[in-house]
Amino acid sequence: MTIQLRQICLVAQDIQQVVDDLRSVLGINSCYVDSGVKAFGLENNLMPVGRNFLEVVAPIQDNTAGGRYLQRRNGDGGYMVITQIDTYAEHQRLRQRAIDAGVRVAHEHSSEQWTLTQLHPGDLKAAFLELEYDKDEDFNGRWNPVGGFGWEDQVKQDVTTDFVGVELQGDDPEALAALWGQCTDLAVETNPAGQPCLSFNNATLRFVPITDGRGPGLGGLDITVADREHILREAKARDGYISDDQVMICGTRWHLIGG
Fold first, then answer.
1. What span, in angstroms and rounded, lies between the C-alpha atoms of 36 and 34?
2. What pTM did the predictor assign?
């Protein structure tokens, strides 16, 4: 069984400002806007990060899940961990494991090509977890949320290379890790920093205590970078500089590795 971190979704009040910040600081391109998210009262923008994706959504009407999330966490921040599962049978097995763990299905959709199960963030106590299966079974290729194909020429990796980690914060990191481990059928490990973690195919989920006063949620992302100087320079220009190893964009801590 293989789980690929294929997409991270952030939620923002001002989508254009956040997209401008992400493109400038991380040196990435926009590749797709999905009009279908209007059904959820949202607008979005997607950007490739390596062969994976970063999405920003923003509410365009009152009383949306995205809007409530902004209110609960007092501003912009991480919203969804979106995964691609290697086979349909494994997708269905993990879906049932989550249900058996008491996690509700918030939304699901299925077609001949693509199957989506979105697990409820309230039950997961940090963020949405989305399980997706694509009939092509290619972690580097077709991806339905960006229209399938057509995004490949927008990949730009001379500044930011890829996602390698997700930082989920909670009141009890060990219990949070155990819950996510139960849903993903992954063993909880301990990293060198003493944090409980889960290992996806291409990234690690780290579970940490809440230190920012914003409650449980997706607080940070680990990215490999090729041009740290570019990121730090642009972050300083946009008031997002935290340290030489960390910048803040869209209420999210970006931990820089390499470069």
1. 5
2. 0.96
Lowest mean pLDDT among 11-20, 70-79, 157-166, 190-199: 70-79
Could you tell me if 138 and 206 lie in one domain? no
List the single range of 38-47, 184-193, 196-205 with lowest mean pLDDT: 38-47
Q: Name the token pair of 250.
A: 């869209």
DSSP 79-136: EEEEEEESSHHHHHHHHHHHHHTTPPEEEEEE-SSEEEEEE-HHHHTSSEEEEEEETT
- Give the C-alpha separation, 47 to 28, whole Å: 7
Whether residue 123 sits in one domain with residue 21 = yes
Instruction: Kindly report the CATH number assigned to the domain that includes residue 47.
Output: 3.10.180.10
The answer on 7 and 132 residing in a single domain is yes
pLDDT reported for residue 62: 85
Residue in 158, 257, 146, 252 with CA at minimum distance from that of residue 203: 257
- Give residue 48's domain range: 3-143
54 plus 168 within the same structural domain: no
Which tokens is 108 given?
Answer: 């699901």
Per DSSP, the three-state class of 41 is coil
Residue 1's pLDDT is what? 67
